[in-house]
Design brief:
The complex is a heterodimer of chains A (929) and B (438). Chain A has 929 residues and is of the alpha/beta class. In chain A, 71% of the residues lie in helices and 8% in strands. The longest helix of chain A has 80 residues. The termini of chain B are far apart. Classes of the chains: A alpha/beta (929), B alpha/beta (438).
């Protein structure tokens, strides 16, 4: 084993540690406890614990371990789990440290580390320590077992505090939630009961609804009765008066004049009568004033429009007469002037009637055209004369030039060149002929002829040059004159033709104007103008003549009209006269008569209308006849009868008014509904007749009101009951209680569940612990105690046969079985030495039971043993050392002695302030002394 | 046979409340607690109208005698009136939670609701959308809380061109049963029935996919952690030409979820902040939006903290304070969200780190302890013994179908709970032993 870093131990190597008994000695504070911790945790790794000595940097321990013949290396670093590697061997490979140390670390440390302090005399221990001791004695593996009853008890108490011993929900912590749930249940029950109550109340509601309906019907009847009685009460006196009127009307039925005159109509009749008498008087006066027979008056009125129109036209007629005279005077003057003008133009026309002058077609001759033709005539004549003169001059010039050009001198000049040419041709011809015979001579001849001719020609040319020039100029001029001559000849002919045309046209004009041929063309426009003027004057005169004739006819006709009317009206034909003056004076007289006649006519008409007006009124009486009556009497009778009729009508009006008044109090819908009959008045009167007096009606009225109020109260009560039921139903219809109850249950059930789970956990844990304890005790009995028994037997030299744990363990400890096998003694009954042997036996038995064998560590507490006990104990340990490696860590030399005395193979190591080294007994003994 | 479509639901427990823990729940959570079963049913009816089904069948336990309420009945009637407007008939049998003799109706049902009698088997013909008979519905209600007769053997219907749908509220177990003893083979043997619309078991399951189909729709809205998972109903379509189609429609507004948080997986959780962070991630995971027609309004969650680690030591110093504080924090953080995540409870099932037990390794007592635990968990006589020791607050076989007032005070020691208890006890013992060793 190599300890690199663990507390005080640093770089310590323990080579060749014996597999049997190994004694490590050292004084206090040498590092024994530290080494012990290394050994205790070697197979498990170091925990992070304040109880372990610290490392300088980190824990590091390395060890080779033998396991069924194989060697493994185990390495511890820091807090890591042990690392295991096989170094040699071929057995089954182990990879996990847990397969090496097949027991949990805690148990190993407790079981395999034996502090001999634990073997102190029992008497000095307290009760708790005794229990602790039992644990120790049983070995750490049984320490848990010893703990079980404590734990079970703790869980049991925890469970009890929650739900009592039986888990009843009405107790302890459960109780509060139980109560709340119960409260929720009660609420729910109430909620559920509500539904049934709702059903019942709903039925009750339907019954009340029915009653309300019935009562409402009764109330409607009572209400209608009250209304009827109220109406009868209020109108009772009116109805009495109505019936009285009805009787009076019946008595005066003969005065009834349906359709008779109104008061106004009667007054109107009186007024008409006065008016009528006045009109009659005035008419008589007017007729006398006019003094014309009715026929004349009628004729006058018949002609009144005519007469009025004629009178209105008098001033116009007078003006027309004056104008006529003026026009006639103008006409005579104009006629004389015209006659003079005609004679002045053409004496031949004197005495001719106007038609001939008017026949002249001056309108066909345009004044402008005549002037244009006249201008063209004169221009053409002038031009024609000019051309004739030029023609004569040119003819003379031609004759002179022809003399120059065609004379003998001229012929001569023209022929000189022709001679030269003939000579030339002859010379050449000769030359050619000669050449045929003698070329040289011929050439010479020809050439000589050409030269000679050329020379002659040049000479002649020079001589005729000026003559020829003169001749040529005259020829050109002659040709020009000829051309001009031809042109002038043509112009003359053209002009002559035009001139002939203009001349002809002017002659036509003159003839048309019926003028003598002596009249020159130049005077034609003047004549044309004067003739046109005369023609115009003739037309004016003719128009005046016609006007005078028309006016005359008109005045004659008018006269006949005026005179005709006056003649028709004239009573005495002798007074008739003639002329316009007579007409005008009589017309004025008849105009005055006409006004008077009109007045008479108007009065006559007004009288007749008034009379008709009176008759129209009188005709209202069916008995009235217009024949043979005196109008005044008829009027008086009518008035008396009319007034009686009016009085009767007034009676009827009163009746109707009263009736209307009563009916109006019956027209409201409520009253109509109360009587519920079409003839509401009839129904009302029938109702009235039931009662003798207004007082009796009032009595019945009051009693009915009282009855109605009573029923109303019943109805109100029913309605209140209904409302109450509705409210109840509304309240019952809510799920509020159910919902609230359910929520109470849900919430508290959840809390209860938490508690129930806690309760269950504790109870189950308790149960589990009991079960484990039971099982483990059984195991102890079956297995462990066998080994322990053997050892105990050995330790006691056969006095005791074995041991077994008693139940319950904590109270009763162990029992030792006597050799006879039938008796047993509890620990208390044993001697101290036997007790120690028993505990050691149990422990060693347990150690031996753990396979594979693990190293046992003996702390040095053997010191307090007396030498005999120590010897016995160590004897057992040396026995154990045959199967287990045993480390004895001590500071006591006595223990060394004890071991040495056993003479068993022992390896010694010395520990000095963290330094470990192999040692021998003597050396170590010396060191510890 | 004409094609028919219908909705099969059961165990509605209309009006019963969700078991959500908390003294003053946020408005939304409280509303869900009280109204989720109603809303769950409303969603079923809305779906029926949207899917234009021919009829709706309710295979028992429409109401809950533990939570009878006027509202529940009013609600049912209101929803059925809507179905009536859509020309959808409703067929109802009573189950053990709403037997006819204990469940007097306050209001009259609308004409489209048919409740089967309890004294005898009844049969109705249903018209389809074209107003011709398309199916027969046969069934019988529970008269009392228990129905020990094999009433399904009395279901006799003609075998012709109409679909035959049978309503039965059964636990589907052989032998003596208070809930119509029946076996699968008995149901399958009735060949004239095409669809067994079962009720009673609260988890949705299709027992037989071939005709005759045997189907439990489960509870449309779970109410506690015994009814985890999203509740809903089945939309069934039967057609001559195609295989039967049975589609689960998740409609529950609220879902119960027990979520494990391990302090030694996916990174060690050594501090309280890290634990909160880990829970936050789980919440995020829960809130991942799902493409549901009827979205969840919220989760009710039990957080179970598991695993080994040093955090355990911190927690165990004051486990209750720690849990209360964490619950309060989580409720504040997530209880008002949309959807809400309401922390019902936080349970610590943690253990100390392994080196805590190092000392005990290989010890005889540890070996013995584990041997005992194994025995306790596996041997029935030990479970019995444990139950005896645990007293009335724990029961081995609490039959929650017969839930009575006494059951509010006791808890079911099922296998898992026992395992948890034993594990906790082991831990306590180890700690005690180690402590005892000093």
């Amino acid at each position: 084993m190599y300890i690199r870093d663990f507390g005080i131990l640093k770089n310590q190597t323990l080579d060749g540690i014996d597999p049997g008994l190994v004694v490590i000695g050292g004084l206090n504070r040498a590092g024994k406890t530290t080494l012990m911790q290394v050994l205790r945790y070697l197979g498990y790794g170091f925990p992070k614990s304040p109880h372990l000595p610290p490392a300088s940097s980190k824990y590091e321990v390395d060890a080779d371990l033998r396991f069924t013949g194989d060697i493994y290396n185990l390495k511890l670093q820091g807090y890591a789990k042990p690392e295991l590697n096989r170094i040699s061997g071929d057995g089954q490979l182990i990879t996990s440290y847990q397969d090496f140390y097949k027991i949990d670390g805690f148990t190993y440390r407790q079981l395999f580390t034996i502090s001999l302090d634990e073997l102190r005399p029992l008497e000095i221990w307290t009760k708790d320590e005794q229990e602790r001791l039992k644990s120790i004695l049983l070995g750490a593996g049984f320490g848990d077992l010893l703990n079980l009853p404590y734990l079970a008890d703790r869980f049991s108490r925890a469970a009890d505090s929650i739900g009592g011993t039986k888990g009843t929900t009405t107790v302890r912590q459960f109780a509060a939630y139980h109560d709340a749930i119960k409260q929720g249940q009660d609420l729910k029950e109430e909620g559920l009961a509500q539904v049934e109550e709702y059903r019942e109340k709903n039925l009750a509601l339907q019954e009340i609804e029915h009653k309300i309906e019935e009562t409402n019907k009764e109330l409607t009847n009572l209400k209608n009765r009250v209304i009827r009685l109220d109406v009868v009460k209020n109108n009772f006196d009116s109805n009495v008066e109505l019936e009285r009127l009805q009787a009076e009307i019946s008595n005066k039925k003969e005065d009834s004049w349906v359709g008779g005159p109104s008061t106004e109509r009667l007054e109107q009749l009186q007024s008409l009568k006065v008016n009528y008498l006045q009109l009659q008087s005035e008419l008589r006066d007017r007729e006398l004033e006019l003094g014309l027979p009715d026929t004349t008056i009628d004729l006058l009125l018949e002609e009144q429009v005519n007469l009025t129109n004629l009178a209105a036209g008098v001033s116009g007629i007078k003006e027309r007469i004056r104008l006529f005279e003026t026009v006639r005077q103008d006409y005579d003057n104009n006629k004389q002037k015209l006659t003079d003008e005609i004679r002045d133009i053409n004496a031949d026309w004197q005495g001719q009637n106007y038609e001939k002058i008017m026949d002249i077609r001056t309108d066909s001759i345009e004044f402008n055209r005549l002037n244009e033709v006249l201008d063209e005539y004169q221009d053409t004549k002038f031009a024609k004369d000019g051309h004739a003169t030029e023609l004569n001059r040119l003819r003379l010039e031609r004759e002179i030039l022809e003399e120059h050009v065609f004379g003998p001198e001229a012929e001569k000049t023209k022929n000189s060149l022709k001679k030269s040419m003939v000579f030339l041709i002859a010379s050449v011809s000769i030359g050619v002929l000669i050449y045929l015979f003698s070329p040289y001579v011929g050439i010479l001849t020809g050439f000589g002829g050409i030269v000679s001719t050329l020379m002659y020609f040049l000479f002649s040319l020079q001589k005729n040059k000026s003559d020829l020039a003169l001749l040529r100029r005259d020829e050109e001029r002659l040709a020009d004159v000829k051309v001009k001559l031809k042109l002038e000849q043509e112009n003359l002919e053209n002009r002559q033709a035009s001139f002939d045309l203009w001349d002809k046209e002017l002659r036509e004009y003159r003839r048309a104007l019926r003028l003598d041929s002596e009249v020159s063309f130049g005077n034609l426009p003047g004549y044309l103008s004067r003739i046109k003027n005369v023609q115009s004057q003739i037309l004016d005169l003719l128009r005046m003549q016609k006007q005078l004739s028309t006016d005359k006819t008109y005045l004659d006709e008018e006269y006949n009209r005026y005179a005709g009317l006056l003649t028709k009206l004239q009573v005495d034909p002798k007074t008739q006269g003639e002329g316009w003056d007579w007409v005008f004076s009589n017309l004025s007289i008849w105009q005055g008569n006409l006004e008077k006649a009109r007045k008479v006519k108007s009065l006559r008409q007004e009288t007749a209308e008034t009379e008709q007006g009176i008759i129209n009124i009188l005709e209202l009486d069916p008995e009235f006849t217009a024949e043979d009556i005196v109008l005044e009497d008829a009027i008086n009778n009518f008035v008396v009868k009319g007034q009686l009729g009016l009085e009767f009508a007034s009676l009827e009006d009163k009746y109707r008014e009263l009736e209307r008044s009563i009916i109006s109090s019956l027209t409201s819908d409520t009253v109509k509904e109360a009587f519920a009959e079409d003839d509401i008045l009839g129904a009302f009167q029938a109702y009235c007749r039931r009662y003798n007096s207004k007082q009796s009606v009032e009595e019945v009225y009051l009693s009915t009101i009282s009855e109605r109020n009573e029923r109303n109260e019943v109805l109100e009560r029913l309605k209140a009951d209904r409302q109450s039921l509705l409210d109840t139903l509304k309240a019952l219809a809510t799920q509020e209680k159910l919902a609230r109850g359910q929520q109470l249950i849900t919430n508290n059930r959840e809390s209860l569940r938490h508690l129930a789970e806690d309760y269950a956990k504790n109870r189950v844990a308790e149960f589990i612990l009991q079960k484990i304890e039971q099982n483990m005790l059984q195991g102890m009995k079956d297995n462990i105690m066998d080994n322990a028994g053997q050892i105990f037997k050995q330790l006691t030299g056969g006095d005791y046969k074995g041991i077994f744990p008693s139940e319950p363990l904590l109270e009763n400890d162990f029992e030792a079985i006597l050799n006879n096998g039938t008796e047993s003694q509890s620990v208390d009954m044993l001697s101290r030495g036997t007790k120690e042997q028993l505990y050691l036996a149990v422990r060693l038995g347990r150690i031996m039971d753990v396979k594979p064998s693990l190293p046992v560590i003996i702390d040095d507490s053997f010191a307090n043993f007396d030498s005999r006990h120590m010897g016995q104990s160590m004897k057992i340990l040396t026995e154990l050392a045959k199967t287990h490696q045993i480390f004895v860590l001590t500071c006591h030399k006595s223990l060394l002695e004890t071991i040495a005395n056993l003479q068993s193979p022992t390896q010694y190591w010395m520990l000095r302030q963290g330094e470990i080294s192999r040692s021998e007994y003597g050396e170590l003994y010396q060191h510890l002394s | 046979m004409d094609r028919i479509r219908f909705i099969h639901t059961a165990d509605v427990h209309l009006g019963s409340f969700l078991q959500i823990i908390g003294d003053s729940l946020p408005t939304k959570v409280e509303k869900s607690r009280v109204e989720a079963t109603l809303e769950g049913f409303q969603r079923v009816c809305t779906t029926a109208i949207e899917e234009k089904v021919d009829f709706v069948v309710i295979s028992g336990d429409l109401y809950d005698r533990e939570a009878r309420s006027v509202q529940a009945q009013e609600y049912f009637i209101r929803e059925c009136r809507k179905l009536a407007q859509a020309d959808i008939e409703v067929f109802v049998i009573a189950g053990n939670h709403d037997p006819l003799r204990e469940n007097q109706d306050i209001f009259e049902f609308p004409g489209n609701v048919h409740v089967f009698r309890g004294e005898q088997v009844e049969m109705y013909e249903v018209l389809n959308q074209r107003r011709v008979p398309a199916a027969r519905i046969v069934g019988q209600s529970y008269l009392n809380r228990a129905e020990t007769q094999k009433i399904h053997l009395g279901y006799k219907v003609p075998s012709d061109h109409l679909w035959n749908i049978a309503l039965l509220h059964t636990q589907l177990e052989s032998g003596a049963s208070n809930y119509v003893p029946a076996t699968l083979s008995e149901l399958k043997d009735k060949e004239e029935i095409h669809y067994w619309a079962l009720g009673h078991l609260h988890q949705p399951q299709i027992i037989s996919e071939d005709i005759p189909l045997v189907v439990y729709p489960g509870i449309p809205q779970g109410r506690d952690f015994g009814e985890q998972g999203r509740g809903g109903s089945f939309l069934v379509e039967l057609s001559r030409s195609q295989r039967p189609s049975v589609t689960f429609l998740p409609t529950a507004p609220v879902q119960f979820a027990r979520v494990d948080i391990f302090i030694d997986r996916d990174g060690d959780v050594e501090t309280i902040d890290a634990l909160r962070e880990k829970i936050a991630r789980k919440v995020e995971h829960l809130l991942v939006k799902k493409d549901d027609k009827h979205p969840l309004e919220g989760y009710v969650v039990d957080w179970v903290i598991r695993g080994r680690g040093y955090l355990h030591n911190n927690i165990m110093e004051q486990p209750e304070n720690f849990a209360d504080h964490l619950i309060s924090e989580l409720r504040t953080e997530y209880g008002n969200g949309n959807p809400f995540v309401w922390t019902n409870a936080v349970t610590f099932r943690t253990k100390p780190p392994l080196d805590f037990e190092f000392e005990m390794e290989n010890s005889e007592i540890l070996l013995e302890l584990d041997a005992v635990l194994k025995e306790f968990l596996e041997e029935p006589e030990f479970k019995e013994e444990i139950l005896n020791r645990l007293g009335p607050v724990w029961k081995g076989n609490v039959n929650f179908e017969d839930h009575g007032p006494a059951d509010d005070f006791r808890f079911h020691l099922d296998h898992d709970t026992l395992q948890e208890l034993l594990e906790s006890a082991r831990q306590m013992i180890l700690e005690g032993l180690i402590q005892g060793r000093g």
